Amino acid sequence: MRLVRLLMACALMAGLAPAAHAQPRDPILVPEISQHEVIVRQGFTGADLLLYGAILQPDGRARPGTSPYDIVVVLKGPSEAINLREKRRIWGMWINADSAQFRSAPSYYAVASSRPLSDIVDPRTAAIYELGVNYLQLSPIGAIRPEEVSRFAEGLVAKREASGLYSQQEDAVSISEGVLYQARIALPSSVLTGTYTAETFAIANGRVLASATSEVTVSKKGFERAVEVASRQWSLAYGLMAVALSVFMGWAAGRLFALG
Questions:
Q1: Which of 49, 72, 83, 197 is deepest in the core (most CB within 10 A)?
Q2: Number of other residues whose CB lies within 10 A of the CB of residue 154
Q3: Each residue of 119-149: pLDDT tens digit?
């Protein structure tokens, strides 16, 4: 209860300007994140973020009780262009077959909701706000049939779900006293650096009433940062050095085994 009272006080003292999507009679969201910067260093095993905040009434007051709203939290990483290739087994060999290119696939995507998304919004609303891994707007490049887009999109989602880069957690947002909400979202060790956007939605009767956004920066420092910068600014030299190092390590390992 002490934590609840503290968060309520912080929420009421924070700037209470309505979110961009809020209407005069709609609720106001005051979001916060446990850490706004994640530092990736050697041995980084991932991070656990707590996304929390308060749901206030249009007059800026917190009114404890049963919340009339559902809360959906989306954490999205930097978008990237991606080229997918489908492998097929022909005459006992796996070879590249069809391919598809997407202009803006999020490098990371996680959604947490207070109830199953299908019970909160209809497919049209889910598609508009990209609520759910099946409603990501991936922007295919070139002429590609809709059924192929769906097949490749499902393959991309399945692959990134397996690696922890995409996730959908239903019944994972808890709402305390109808005012405070919180959800935990994990960042795997393989996340890309960049700015991550955390967007919170207050939804009632299938309609998004308010939204609010905060940001998390994932960055590298020290030696890891120097390596990343070198790989981008001097890509040719970096690639040649990586190949030379691999050849040297292979030669050294062979010599060690030969001496043994």
A1: 72
A2: 12
A3: 999 999 999 999 999 999 887 887 677 777 7
Residues 6+ apart with CB under 8 A from 65: 177, 178
Between strands 109-113 and 47-56, the pairing is unpaired
**Residue of 208, 156, 202 whose CA lies nearest to 180:** 202
Helix/strand/coil (H, E, C) string of the chain?
CHHHHHHHHHHHHCCCCCCCCCCCCCCEEEEEECCCEEEECCCCCCEEEEEEEEEECCCCCCCCCCCCCEEEEEEECCEEEEEEEEEEEECCEEEEEEEEEEEEEECCEEEEECCCHHHHCCHHHHHHHCCCHHHCCCCEECCCCHHHHHHHHHHHHHHHHHCCCEEEECCCCEEECCCEEEEEEEECCCCCCEEEEEEEEEEECCEEEEEEEEEEEEEECCHHHHHHHHHHHCHHHHHHHHHHHHHHHHHHHHHHHHHC
What digits encode the pLDDT tens for the residues 193-227?
Answer: 999 999 999 999 999 999 999 999 998 775 554 55
Answering whether pTM is above 0.85, one says no
CA-to-CA distance for 25 and 22, rounded, in angstroms? 8
Report which residue type is found at 5. R
